[in-house]
Design brief:
This protein has one helix spanning 105-110, and strands at residues 3-7, 10-13, 18-25, 33-39, 46-51, 57-59, 67-72, 77-82, 91-98, 116-117, 121-126. With 127 residues, it is mainly beta. The longest helix is centred in the last third of the chain and has 6 residues, at 105-110.
Length: 127
């Protein structure tokens, strides 16, 4: 059974850091393009960061320089290191895996449900 389980969310003060994890099972982790997405009440889901099978990364402008996406193939785990957190980072964070990424995947995947998705982990940043 395919599973993506996010963890590491919580409450943190602005300027603080968190590291999210997404543990994957039930599919060939090494062959999937993966990413982090977030959604807050009343707003559309948005792409945060993505990493391809070769380790190349892409970030949303809003998190560039603050967040780092990485993966450990041996542990079949995706990570999102979040630094200098801001109140606008408050959202439910989801990880996703897709075997067939196309151009502009971070944007496209945010609006669709291709591949696999986890159930999310809440991040709350207070000022």
């Amino acid at each position: 059974q395919v599973q993506l389980v996010e963890s590491g969310g919580g409450s943190v003060q602005a300027g603080g850091s968190l590291r999210l994890s997404c543990a994957a099972s039930g599919f060939d982790f090494d062959d999937y393009h993966m990413g982090w997405f977030r959604q807050s009440p009343g707003k559309a889901r948005e792409g945060v960061a993505e990493i391809d099978v070769d380790g190349r990364t892409t970030y949303a402008d809003s998190v560039k320089g603050r967040f780092i996406i990485s993966k450990d193939n041996a542990k079949r785990t995706l990570y999102l290191e979040m630094n200098n957190l801001k109140s606008e980072d408050t959202a439910m964070y989801y990880c996703s895996a897709d075997p067939f990424p196309g151009a502009g995947w971070l944007l496209t995947q945010a609006a669709h449900d291709f591949g696999y998705w986890g159930q999310g982990t809440q991040v709350t940043v207070s000022s």
